[in-house]
Automatic annotation (TrEMBL):
This is Quinolinate synthase. It comes from Winogradskyella litoriviva. The keyword Metal-binding applies. [4Fe-4S] cluster binds at C106, C192, C287. The lineage of its organism: Bacteria, Pseudomonadati, Bacteroidota, Flavobacteriia, Flavobacteriales. Catalyzes the condensation of iminoaspartate with dihydroxyacetone phosphate to form quinolinate. Keywords: 4Fe-4S, Cytoplasm, Iron, Iron-sulfur, Metal-binding, Pyridine nucleotide biosynthesis, Transferase. InterPro entries: NadA, NadA_sf, Quinolinate_synth_type2. It comes from the Bacteria. PANTHER family: QUINOLINATE SYNTHASE, CHLOROPLASTIC, QUINOLINATE SYNTHETASE A. It is an enzyme of class 2 (transferase). Belongs to the quinolinate synthase family. Type 2 subfamily. The gene is nadA. Pathway: Cofactor biosynthesis; NAD(+) biosynthesis; quinolinate from iminoaspartate: step 1/1.
Length: 331
């Protein structure tokens, strides 16, 4: 037998793969296991609808970190991507934190390798480092402050204007913040593949069809998108904007998972996903990492408490400092 087959059959014997489980009612089983294990299910707005529906809490990156910091559950099941579950583990070193698919990473976090970033930081010793939460624990450990798209402005404004700052890893969010705060932060050259996939040409055609629509965008989007957007904000910010606006039609430039909540909250409004360059099927942008989590994987990870997130204790001690600074400033 080949190595992969041996590994697969041993995992099957242990019941981990549960390949033959077609009759399981995953929703019912997940609810049951959550209760038995005193587990909390936290989900990001980009998760598939079925996961958002059964989550105990659905939120943006900041709200999820705040929830993770406060939970009294014994286990955190994180329906999101690796850096989010890792942040939850850093905040809860003694709790079990599981992620349905360990391969659910993030292109933005990957665009900032710790060895290169450490070198970059050494070249600018007089700079403070503010990093977007979409980065690894190693990068957080090299940072002075962590921020998300909903509190970045507040975090940066808390630093004296004449203090030089490095902002990483998202160049689009960084450039937007430089414009908003009047600073000249040094930007790391990273990006999210999903938010850089929108097509201006297709967007202009969409506007011809819907001249009464407003474009709203996540700040990870490129400058030309942000320039024409009526509102720029985090996923929670975009949801609030649509809920509180008198307008009836919106083109939404962020990952398509947000449409589930947006349409549920605003059944009378017309919500259109901003078109992506390559997409000819659903005409929207999906994060392949976020979509790796499924109900079946969620059930299996709750049942077997695997894959669990582990963070080296020394690393966690350093990484929690800038995370706690962010949480303190966000109260
Ligand atoms: P927010 O939910 O904080 O807006 O972040 C969006 C995102 O890209 C998460 O990966
Ligand atoms: Fe990362 Fe972009 Fe996916 Fe968010 S949408 S998890 S930033 S790749």
């Amino acid at each position: 037998m080949k190595t992969l087959e041996i590994a697969k059959s041993s995992l099957e014997k242990k019941g981990y793969l549960d390949i033959e489980t077609p009759d399981i009612d995953y929703v019912k089983e997940i609810q049951k296991l959550k209760k038995e294990k005193n587990a909390v299910l936290l989900a990001h707005y980009y998760q598939i609808d079925e996961i958002q529906e059964i989550a105990d809490f659905v939120g943006d990156s900041l709200a999820l970190a705040q929830k993770a910091a406060k939970t009294d559950a014994d286990m955190i099941v994180f329906a999101g991507v690796h850096f989010m579950a890792e942040t939850a583990k850093i905040l809860n070193p003694t709790k079990k934190v599981v992620l349905p698919d360990l391969l659910a990473g993030c292109s933005l976090a990957d665009s900032c390798p710790p060895d290169r970033f450490s070198e970059f930081k050494k070249q600018h010793p007089d700079h403070l480092v503010v990093t977007y939460i979409n980065c690894s624990a190693e990068i957080k450990a090299l940072s002075d402050y962590v921020c998300t798209s909903s509190n970045a402005r507040k975090i940066i404004d808390s630093i004296p204007q004449d203090q030089p700052v490095i902002f990483a890893p998202d160049r689009n969010l960084g450039a937007y913040l430089n414009k908003e705060t009047g600073r000249n932060m040094l930007l790391w050259d990273g990006a999210c593949i999903v938010h850089e996939a929108f097509s201006m040409e297709k967007l202009l055609n969409l506007f011809k069809e819907h001249p009464d629509a407003e474009l709203i965008a996540h700040p990870e989007s490129e400058a030309h998108m942000l320039k024409v957007a009526k509102y720029i904000g985090s996923t929670a910010g975009l949801l609030n904007y649509v809920k509180n606006s008198d307008k009836k039609k919106f083109i939404v430039a962020t990952e398509a998972g947000i449409l589930f909540q947006m349409m549920q909250e605003n059944p009378e409004k017309h919500i259109i996903p901003a078109p992506a360059e390559e997409d000819n099927t659903c005409a929207c942008s999906e994060c392949a990492f976020m979509k790796m989590n499924t109900l079946k994987k969620l059930y299996l990870c709750l049942k077997h408490e695997l894959p669990s997130i582990e963070v080296d204790a020394e690393l966690a001690k350093k990484a929690i400092i800038p995370i706690n600074r962010m949480l303190e400033l966000s109260k």
